[in-house]
Amino acid sequence: MMRALLVILVFAAGCAKEASDLPDAALGAPADAEAQSDAAPEAPDDAATAAPDDAALAAPDASAAPDAQIVVTSTDPFALVPPSGVGLTDVATDLRAILENGALEGACDAWALDPNNQRKKLLCGKYMYFYESFGTAGLPLAIVQSLMENFPEMGPGFAGVGLIEDPLSSTHLPIGLSKASTATTAPPSVALTCASCHFARLDDGRYAVGAPNHDYDYGKHILSIVLLPQLARTNPDLSVHHPDAIAKVRTMLDRLQMDRALRIRFLIDLLPLLALARGGMIPMLTIEDEGHYAGWLTGTQDFTIPPVPINDGVHTISKISALFSVPRIPEWRAYQMPSAMLGWVGESPSIEDFVHGFVQLGAGPASEWTDARLEPLVDYVYSLRPPIPPTQDRAEVLRGEALFQSAGCLDCHNGPRGSGRRLYDYPEIGTDDAMRAWMDPDLDGQPCCGVQNANGGVLHHKLKSPRLMGLWSAKRFLHNGAVPSLESLLCTDGNLRGSIMLPAYGDGGHTFGCALSAADKAALISYLKSH
Question: pTM, whole model, 2 decimals?
């Protein structure tokens, strides 16, 4: 069960470290307007700035080379990046189309028979993105199904906590929850994949691969899996649990206490855990950690906290971020960056290193997941492009673009897709600095917990300025997701924020742009939402 929950906690949360929305280091700007499928709603008149149709940007050539050699040399950091999806549907209103109408099943076998076919390779990578559990164990399927079937708060596909039901699943599993590898004697189990966090429904009704799922209530999801079973017996002692955590699962707990038949069914579904319980393998949360899980906003999480075995002893909060247009080595070198600086602390130099970290943190067989075996997934993530945004008033966008440069935003957002080209000290930004001690509670530069850092072992205790992609549909801003909108980030209501002072949750800092006039803020927001 420990390994089961590790998968839940790593693949739902580990992905959150890759950053892409509004930064903590300077005023944000948007992303390139490229995507792969359904176009955004059309503008009502010619005054709007129109983006090209998503479908027109998709490259249908099955043998097309990946974008490994793409280097954008334009002085505009938001210059359009050429498409590399070879015709895959990564943005659409139709979920079945997103899942390639069932063509993902068997895609890796098909690529193995035709290894020079780039389309088949990316189809394999897309399958891995949605369905690969990387050899890790998962949660007993019976418990997962019991939560979905018996508790409306969860519902089919765990829609109640913000996940999206897989239309191809006969058992109503959510997208991003897939069959896990288990021993032949173990009960069937499932584990979360990258798509649980990095696949979302946009405000205009489209779905986008790579978009951050800011509706995902990860804390409630985990508490329903870890805490609720502990409370399933008659008259449980609630005093030994955090009141906020109890409140998160209260309606489900009340159902169990009031419906004896439901309680019996649920306890029967828990029977696969009895052997694990006898062996002391069922993870328990401290009252403090229960409170952390209960306190996170949707779309945020801490993935180095119990019951994950790698516990750095520091409570940090990371916002789930987008995976659009990650720069490859030639591009970030052209921008004179030290690496792609992935993750909020910028310590992962590339998607390759990032994916290897997923496998390691997930207690999977790391030695089996070689670079070659992970290559389809890596290439697929590199192929992701942001969805075309709704159109904005052209005059406002142009004025906002000028402000983005004149107000100093470009000073910190002059890298690929508006990312920074260096790491920033927290005092430069003014945001919550709990993340400074991430994986290094002693602040000595050495990662704790037996973890090796891809950048040579030294942690920098800094924060990155991430790529600014798809801000028009984002619901969380700053690295910890404490700010709910661009308008709030720019203090459009006159409030400079900073009222939330609790460590890790702080909403202060990053006041760049707050001194602009209301009209200038509106123009800047139009520009930020236009890419």
Answer: 0.87
